[in-house]
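Appendix B. Chain record.
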Amino acid sequence: MRNTTILSILVVLLLSLSACSLVNPLEIIKANPEVASFLAEHPNADIQMIKIDSDFVQEKIDEIRLLCGEQMQVKNYYQATIFDPDTNFRMVVYIDHETKDLDCLRKYSEITNETIDEEAKEYKEEFIEKEQDKEEKKIKEEYPETFSLKYEVTEDNRIKLSWDAVPEDENFQYYKVVRSKENKKLQYPEDGYIQVESNRLNTGYTDEKPLKEAYYRITAVYSDKKTNSNVIEIEVENIEDNENKEETEFKNDVELSYEVSDNSVKLFWTATKQEGNFQYYKIVRSAENKELQYPEDGYLEYLTDKLNTQYVDENPLPFAYYRITTVFDDGKFNSNVVKVYFGEEPETSVSVGVSDDLENATVENETDNVTENNETIDNNEDSEDNETISTENEEINQTE
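Structure tokens predicted for this chain:
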């Protein structure tokens, strides 16, 4: 009798476990009210699903938690993406692989980069803030702040900069005085410069024509490294912004073009035909400001020959804006702006809170097969779970 009872209990447990394992994750997703409503409103939406293992989750856990919340744990998940091509709305769903519980559901617009559900917005903001912190940390690691920059505004509204001399070093080359109207993370060479000083002990510079508002920084350049001062933000009251002062009216007749080679960016432009006392062409480059111009964004190089209309940037950035400012003694004008990718141009669409690795780990649209780490699970191979999800048969075929 006792053996019969134990056998009955074992049979019940086995049946329960079997029933649990045969629950179709796709059906769990479709049964969710939000998903069902989304699918009803977007009949052309496509569902794609993969299985991601705990090792992959461990690597991406910060991004997953920023999207879904701190409740997400390092374990195996089914990750489903529901995308509507008509509206570019997207849903991301995580289901616990073992319990089949729906642990996360997030919706957002791929076009506007805005999350649809309010709960996810804070995670998007945290994610963006974290990425910005990473970028700032990377900049500080590559160009550490090692000396102090100070300033004073004179009675006649000039800005006197002074900084600590860097320690003596045979590899020291020069200081670059960098100024930007908009970029508070400015540095050389990304933001050009307005002055160069090759004497290590000369630690001052006076900006005779300051902007009403601007950021300043000093970059110390060595043959083997660069270091930065701190950034200071200066607002000069009771002056007219020098960039808005009245100048001789010049019409832009300089057209800028470019070519990208394996190791450089070549700029070439049409020579100006404007009459007047020509001084120089200023080659201006910025990593962020698409409305760049001299003197606000400094310059890479200047050319005093009016007919010399080529320049080769031998140390290009992965991405940058370029412009030529043509300067006369009584005015200046700007060329068109060119946007240059040095290397492969990135994709224009951006996904919120989900890395490219997760977004690209998808299955073929027509089959809705579950994949494990981007590989389709084959019932005839010895995989961990040996399972295939079929939307046509509405069931899971499992081989023990």
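Further analysis of this model is presented in Appendix C.
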